[in-house]
Amino acid sequence: MMLPIVFRRAAHSDYRDAARWYEDRALGVGYRFVARIEQALLLISEAPRRAATLLADIRRMRIREFPFFIYYVVEDSRIVVLAVLHARRNPTTWRHRK
Predict the structure, then answer these.
(1) Average pLDDT for 60-67
(2) CA separation (Å) from 9 to 13, 23, 65, 83?
(3) Domain CATH number, residue 69
(4) Which of 38, 78, 81, 88 falls 20 to 30 Å from 46 in CA-CA distance?
């Protein structure tokens, strides 16, 4: 059973800002970034416990082709995305978002 995915406001901003940044650098790269994020979200929705647990119940999935991670928690009836962060950003950034 696939679980619905919801984004925290900050996570949605992370995602949108990164896609815009890539698209500003080269035409079509932002769209490719979005496609890779959507692929990862589909995998998360299909098997939410597949990704590694980092802290308590927070999980992290790496994005193919781009140096980004999706940080999320699995709840009873949904998946909550806490952050979409570049791999070089301080990994503690997402901790206050839970």
Answers:
(1) 95
(2) 6, 21, 25, 9
(3) 3.30.2310.20
(4) 88
